[in-house]
Amino acid sequence: MFYLIHIAIFCAIYGILAISLNLVLGYTGLLSVTQAAFYGLGAYATAILSTRFNLGFGESLLIGIAIVSVVSFLVGLVLSKLAGDYYAVATLGFNVIIVAVMLNWSALTNGPLGIAIFSKTTLFGLDFSSQPAFLALALFLLFLAYGIGYYLKKSSFGRVLKAIREDEKAIQVFGYNTTKYKLVIFVIGAALAAAAGSLFAAYISYVDPSSFATNESIFILSVIILGGLANLEGSILGAIFLVLLPELLRFVGFPEAVAAELRQAVYGLLLVILMLYRPQGLLGEYKL
């Protein structure tokens, strides 16, 4: 039972991350490969604030979101000067910079040793430290992230984002400041990723730079491409699929000597087959 709850919590965390990136890439067409950096900043903010300042989960969550919002706003201003492949490479570079800071600013982050968290997860006076209670908290934040995404999708703001994705120059002709729209959605996506990072830190009770490297950003990107771009339900479905699939492969009776390698091979093969026959993802509205 506890194993299933553990998997469900990670499905919720990656569901929030997938929604945060889908708003940026799926709805706006901005190929960002830096979501793990904001995820990590949110996690480290919770770890540092709870261990050094004895703040509760709620306070560290909000402060972490505020910090990441400011950082993402400044990064977004720089990225607004770029487009296409240059935008993607710049976001990748930012992810590398953040991980390097986590590794080398030992006075703040404890370097590669990471930070262990010993405080309980409390919010509004309620204790969410037990696994079932934490799952309820994770699902609540996932529902909140979905609600934000759904509201944006249905609003006039969301319609402008889709227009930017389809033809940015055309929407500029009608007087829309597309830079402002792209900057706002970039900050919203980063803030949601920071919330997922706070959840991760509180649940694992430990953070270190290796959890937020570039391969994590690529994994989040894979989740939304598999689940479907510009589809919030697809984000959650993709997260469930990619979190569950490696776990299910553990129960396949591969020879013990090569079990790990065969699981990775089958995992990759299944993804390739799915992309060949369903390139828009499980529930996607368009392809990259």
Essential attributes:
two-stranded antiparallel sheet; 73% helix; 3% strand
Distance between the termini: 39 Å
Largest sheet data = 2 strands, antiparallel
List how many beta strands DSSP finds: 4
Low-confidence stretches: none
How would you describe the shape? globular
- The tally of structural domains comes to 1
| SSE-based structural type | mainly alpha
Please state roughly what percent of the residues sit in beta strands, choosing from under 5%, 5-15%, 15-25%, 25-35%, 35-45% or over 45%: under 5%
How many individual helices?
11
**Helical fraction:** over 70%
Instruction: Give the SSE order as H and E letters.
Output: HHHHHEEEHHHEHHH
Task: Tell me, rounded to a whole number, the average pLDDT.
Answer: 91
Order of strands in the sheet with the most strands? 1-4
Gyration radius, to the nearest Å? 19 Å
